[in-house]
Amino acid sequence: MERYRIRPGREVDLRTFDPNDTGAFDGDKDDGKDALKALNERLEDLQERLWAEQKHRLLVVLQAMDAGGKDGTIRHVFEGVNPQGVRVANFKVPTRKELAHDYLWRVHREVPGDGEIVIFNRSHYEDVLVVRVDRLVPPEVWGRRYRHINDFERMLADEGTTLLKFYLHIDREEQKERFQDRLDEKPWKFSMGDLGKREQWPQYMEAYEDVLRETSTGWAPWYVVPANRKWYRNLVVGTVLVETLEALDMRYPAPADDLDGVVIP
Ligand code: ADP
Q1: Residue 263 counted as domain residue
Q2: Ligand 1 centroid vs 179 CA: distance in angstroms?
């Protein structure tokens, strides 16, 4: 999975990342789906350990263009995991109250506590993406946010949070197909606003490239996930999660009492 991780400070040209890539699976969807099932089971066990140990915290950031597959990734990668152990935080257009605070205020409240996994479906990165592309604040304001974000994430990491960030990379053609499917099959999920953002595709790609270059750090790395093939996208995200959690070497705690010879009456 290393090849999808962005090394700190690296110039990123998203045109050089193939959204159709299926890695070693070479397009074999059935094998990919079997592999995901195995990952689901490992993740289920790892989440249980994480909760039992009450020592680590995991924050997963998901960003993508519209129809990039954030919802599907959450649904499939976490299939089988105890819903009580995982929480999803959505970040929509900020409310009046949220706008009356700094942009990290609403974000910090949602970060995981001990033993928790929290998935950010959109995140503080919207504050250097849509906010930049739609010119909601001047460049000098969003321009200094990369530094804030790196410092904020460093603080979280120093205090015991493991951070993983995924950009689900689809191309404009794939978005067109997914929008068309939505229009035909799930019109309630379709909004005219999505078409506006589609028009701004090049500006978004530029904004994402800057995010990836400026904020992929040793303590909070970005992964660019090939996401035209949904099954491969799930596999990449699932593998990175499982490998990262396994590296934490989590153990079930010893029982509080001496249980030798205990008989349940
Ligand atoms: P989703 O597309 O994630 O399923 P919505 O369709 O409700 O959910 O979209 C949420 C919208 O909120 C997106 O258009 C996103 O760009 C916008 N948004 C999120 N954070 C901010 C922000 N900080 N400032 C402005 N808009 C934001």
Answers
A1: no
A2: 17
112 belongs to a structural domain: yes
Q: How would you write the pLDDT of the chain (265 residues) with one tens digit per residue?
A: 899 999 998 999 999 999 999 999 888 889 999 999 999 999 999 999 999 999 999 999 999 999 999 999 999 999 989 988 899 999 999 999 999 999 999 999 999 999 999 999 999 999 999 999 999 999 999 999 999 999 999 999 999 999 999 999 999 999 999 999 999 999 998 989 889 999 999 999 999 999 999 999 999 999 999 999 999 999 999 999 999 999 999 999 999 899 989 999 9
- Report the candidate in 36, 25, 51 with the shortest Cα–Cα distance to residue 241: 36
**Which ligand 1 atom sits nearest the alpha carbon of residue 121?**
3
* 225 domain residue, yes or no: yes
Q: Which residues of 219-254 are buried (b: 16+ CB within 10 A; e: fewer)?
A: ebbbbbbbbbbbbbbbbbbbbbbbebbeeeebeeee
Residue identifier of the C-alpha nearest atom 4 of ligand 1: 71
The domain spanning residue 216 has which CATH number? Answer: 3.40.50.300
Residue 132's domain comprises: 2-247
Protein residue with least CA distance to atom 21, ligand 1: 93
**Å from CA of 1 to ligand 1 middle:** 29
Any ligand 1 atom below 6 A from CB of 194: no
Q: How many structural domains does the chain have?
A: 1
> pTM here?
0.97
List the beta bridge partners of residue 225.
168
Instruction: Give the residue among 42, 61, 49 at the shortest CA–CA distance from 118.
Output: 61
6 inside domain: yes
Nearest residue CA, atom 7 of ligand 1? 92
Cα–ligand 1 centroid distance for 126 (angstroms): 7
